Amino acid sequence: MKKLLRSVGACALSLALGLTLVLTGCEKAAEKPAEKAAPAAEGPKTGELKVGFVYTSPVGDAGYSWAHDQGRMAIEALPDVKASIVEAVKEGADAERVIENMARSGYDLIFTTSFGFMDPTMKVAKDFPKVKFMHCSGFKAGENVSNYFGRIYQARYLTGMVAGSMTKSNIIGYVAAFPIPEVIRGINAFTLGARSVNPKAQVRVVWTKTWFDPALEKDAAISLLDVNADVIAQHQDSPGPQEAAQQRGKYSIGYNSDMAKFAPKAHLTSAVWNWAPLYEAIVKEVREGKWTGNRSIWWGMDKGIVDIAPFGPMVPKAVADKVLAKKAELVKGEDKIFVGPIKDQGGKIKIADGVKAEDKELLGMTWFVEGVVGSVQ
Amino acid sequence: MLLTLHKREEALGRGAPVVYLCALALSLCVCALMLALAGKPALGGLAVLFRGAFGQTHALLDALLKAIPIFLCSLGVALSFRMQIWNIGAEGQFALGAVGATWAALTFGGQPAVVLMPLMLLSALILGALWGLIPAWLRLRLGVNEIISSLMLNYVGILVLEYLVFGAWKDPLSFGFPMSPEFPPAAQLSRIWPGVLGKLHWGLLACPLAGVAYSVFLNRTRLGFELAACGEGERVARYARLPYGFLVLLVMGLGGALAGLAGSIETSATLGRLQPTLMVGYGYTAIVVAWLARLKPWPIAFTAFLLAALRVGVEAMQLELQIPAAFGQIMEGAILLCVLAGQFFLTYSVSLKRARPAAPKASPQPEEAQA
Amino acid sequence: MSPELIIALLAATVQAGTPILYATLGEIISERAGVLNLGVEGIMALSSFAGFMACHLTGSAWLGLAVGGLAGALLAGLHGVVCQVFLGNQVVSGLALTIFGVGLCNFLGTPYIGQSTDGFHQFAVPLLADIPLLGAIFFRQDALVYLSYLAPVAVWFLLWRTSFGLGLRAAGEMPDAASAAGRNPQRLRFSGVLLGGLLCGLGGAYLSLAHTHLWTTGLSGGRGWVAVALVIFAFWRPGRAVAGAYLFGGVMAFQLRLQASGTNVPSSLLLMLPYVLTIVVLVFSAARARSARKNGPTARNSAAPAALGVNIEPVG
Questions:
Q1: Could you tell me the CA-to-CA distances from A373 to A203, A216, C258, C297 in Å, in that order?
Q2: Closest by alpha carbon to B73, among B53, B87, B84?
Q3: Chain C 248-267, residues with CB within 8 Å of chain A CB atoms
């Protein structure tokens, strides 16, 4: 059997290799005309528009990918748009292959929705100049790549105001996923919001190094409740922390979508994504031939891409009014969240008085503002 | 009427491919059934799977590319499994290999490729081997079970990688995201023939080299024979005065080095920098592959390729049929279980006889399966 | 740390350790019978969903628990069929089982994400809960935690004090001897696998029914793998399994609290703690076992069942 297995293996592998080489020739012949037949990049795009989405987690998680998928469904409802997904794609080599397959299968526009897809997107984009790529949450762009994201920190600031108003112990717990700028920026905005209404408030951070482990994230929230936190916020895709707050009779603040259904008695509000306006706008651009690469699209509350969920019944009207007044400012486009003076954890001024932090600074934020307790790593 | 089993006098020879094909066909039937239950075209779906895995040049190349790290890790663990050392730490050794390669790439970045590449490989091999030697040493000196220590070291290895890219090695230009600076071109394995062979890179060369070395080592060297003899267990080995301890260190070190090699190839060729996203579980897949292939090099290569192709094909199915990712997992699990069960018929035959087989055995006790 | 915080930490330890304890005990039974089941992660995942669904549909937490356990036994039965009937390699079968189980529950469960169920809730045991310190740690938990206090004793009794347990262990140590003694080692092994799967299933059901009260993908979160490792840590003995599960749960709970109280140690290093500590403790206990071995015939106490992972070949 040993011999036979070996020879079978040998035959099969050499067959595969041989086939590869033979087919290589055929493919060259077959693929060239197809590429020529592809629609020109410029000018309006008529007929069916094939849009692809690549997600890093399963859509079912009611979290980050789910929020993107809501946006995808909005554009699928548009006439002549086919919007497909590949979910649970591991960032790295697998991502490159999935994106490349999409580009090869004639997709016109591809959204890659996670930071880890940045380098793979850039690599594939180089090989498929006619396909338009949109990468979410990164910092690279190219001829046929633009990146996009939403200013969720604006929503975080508002939820921070709610938390700061509702806390009695002046300790707010924050269950956080990974120490990357997106999360750090959110924690900072949240803390600034909380301290704008309650200067004594402090925000304690626990890193779980998971995006999605409901039981662990619940345990993390409990550990924060144990050190007297009475409001739990989260940058985490699972509803575990909500559950913990409700069980202890404390308050919670959700993320991604309205998390009220997970903890109706605890849930104050959530910072939520609403990708539909952005996705619709991009599809429209492509339709009209106005889409260009090399852009960084970073929309905020003024465009409706981020928002806060309806307040829970325990939020007093006075608090709600104050938060809504601030929200009205943001909706008008007046974003003064990261305007100095802002100090870091050590009390050192990081953003000078009256200066507004540039987007570039926000994108690469790696320090905590004053009022956050915890390690930034 | 009862089904009776007979152990084949000689393991199935020519019929083996038939057995495998039948098992594969059975598992594909299961998949088709599940597709139908999910309201998707059953046969069409399988056609998409096949096309996505084997039907196009780029698919074959992608599968080959994905098979490289699986093959190397699998060879590494197979070596230790042969002497009943249960090294399941390929994942952590893979991570440490990547860390080693990155260290060299960042430290000697200015050197030309001829200097830099060997340095990267060397440090990857050393770090991977060291990570493999820890459980070996713990077992020999302190009697700590290597399954648990190598498994725990997987988690630790990945966290070491994370610690470095979240901290000391973070690229100043990455806006605070956890990734090392991009390697200089001299530290990136180049593609063999970009226009024709797609993303296939020179790391592929490591596979035949490692495979041949593995065969030669086991079949042609004295140590290889001794290693095979140790497969009977520690007591037998020590009784036969074989250098058991040395061999344990050797297989764990070599296994770690192979996994480290895979890690360095993956960082250098596919990512071009160190990132936590490097870790996708090849080290665990490698264990499945090693056992499914019964620890033999050619079957390992073949199985690694098939499993990689299956995963590539499932992605195509996901895109074309819009089935959830979980469906691909169910299929992979079902296929593995069917093929595994099918291997039974390589060593046993089933016949529809009512009585016991004529040939008298020392303790005739036919296993009875329900008809 | 204040005393209240330490009590809270220990209570959290018990809670975090409970699902791991159930799964570890289940795997101990399976391995004692000679069958290595690496599918614990898949079993826990599937059971967490099955238990949740049953409770969600009927409103009965106990029924949910039963269905969760049953689902675990069923999936483990698949492993049993592949390994016992078709003599498949136990390592591959277990790993395939994990892939299959995780995939299956994610596939079936996606529509039910976000729905919650009543499940089990914490309640104080009368009298016992008022014991200083111990009461707050052990007796203000939920019913499944209380049940888990009995489980190791039950498993120990089953394995070492019943004729069935004797046969089970014989099937794992010397199947030939078992069959010579007139037992059917195949049947014994199969029941060991099923029983083990049942307990792993209870661990999975604990997660959805008592811990989170809802089901989402990824609920088992690697706890099944920890359980597989802890079986070795426990030297295949229920008593040590308790120590292992609580140690692991405790260190996890501790590092979270260390972060919550505002430390500046990078989280990657803190997260390494449970894994490193497991090895360290193992080093010490292995060293002790070694010195014990030199002194007397207790060597087998810390070794794996002799026929673990070796399938019984039918003779014919």
A1: 6, 20, 12, 55
A2: B87
A3: 252-253, 256-257, 259-267
Q: Does A180 touch chain C (CB under 8 A)?
A: no
| Cα B92 from Cα B115, distance rounded (Å) | 26
A236–chain C Cβ distance below 8 A for any pair: no
How many domains in chain B?
Answer: 1
Q: CB neighbours of B95 closer than 8 A, spacing ≥ 6?
A: B154, B157, B158, B160, B161, B263, B278, B279
Asked if A232 and A166 sit in the same domain, the reply is yes
Q: Rounded to an integer, what distance in angstroms lies between the CA atom of residue A342 and that of residue A374?
A: 18
CB contact (8 A) between residue B176 and residue A98: no
Same domain, A110 and A146: yes
CB contact under 8 A, C229 and B337: no
Neighboring chain B residues of C287 at a CB cutoff of 8 Å:
142-143
Statement: residue A194 has pLDDT above 90: yes
Residues A227 and A349 grouped into a single domain: yes
Instruction: Name the residue among B7, B145, B343 with its Cβ closest to that of C232.
Output: B145
Q: Which of A96, A125, A150 is the last residue of a domain?
A: A150
CB atoms within 10 A of CB A247: 18
Average pLDDT on C8-31 reads 93
The structure tokens 């325990």 sit at: A314
Alpha helices per DSSP H over chain A: 2-37, 64-76, 93-104, 118-127, 152-166, 181-197, 214-226, 240-247, 276-288, 317-331, 359-363
Say how many domains are in chain A. Answer: 2
Contact A243 C212 (CB under 8 A): yes
Q: Which domain holds residue A54?
A: 49-150
Q: What is the pLDDT of residues C205-246, one digit of tens each?
A: 999 999 888 888 888 888 999 999 899 888 899 999 999 999
3-class secondary-structure state, position A82:
strand
Q: Which of A89-103, A271-285, A318-332 has the lowest mean pLDDT?
A: A89-103
Beta-carbon contacts of residue C14 (< 8 Å; ≥ 6 apart): C137, C138, C141, C145, C246, C249
Chain B neighbors (3+ CB pairs < 8 Å): A, C
Size of interface B-C (CB pairs under 8 A): 174
Last residue of a domain, one of A127, A150, A173: A150
Tell me the C-alpha distance between B259 and C221, whole Å: 25
Range C3-300 classified under CATH 1.10.3470:
yes
3-state secondary structure C109-155: HHHHCCCECCCCCECCCCCHHHCCCHHHHHCCCEHHHHHHHHHHHHH
Q: Report chain C residues whose CB lies below 8 A from the CB of B324.
A: 106-107, 110
Query: What pLDDT was estimated at residue C307?
Result: 83
Shared-domain flag, residues A251 and A326: yes
Would A293 be classed as within a structural domain? no
CB A366 within 8 A of CB A184: yes
User: pLDDT tens for residues A163-179?
Assistant: 999 999 999 999 998 88
Min Cα separation C209/chain A (Å): 11
Cα dihedral B238, B242, B248, B251, rounded to 10, equals -150
**Which of A204-218, B11-25, C62-76 is predicted least confidently?**
B11-25
Q: Is residue B82 part of a domain?
A: yes
DSSP state of C84: I
Contact between chains at B333 and C266 (C-beta distance less than 8 A): no
Q: Enter the ipTM.
A: 0.86
Is residue A245 classed as helix, strand or coil in its secondary structure?
helix
Measuring CA to CA, which residue among C181, C266, C216 is closest to residue C102? C216
Give chain C's end-to-end CA distance (angstroms, integer): 66
CB–CB contact A5 B176 (8 Å): no
- Same domain (yes/no): A264, A328: yes
Task: Please check whether residues A175 and A221 belong to one and the same domain.
Answer: yes
Query: How open is the CA angle C246-C213-B281, to the nearest 5 degrees?
Result: 60
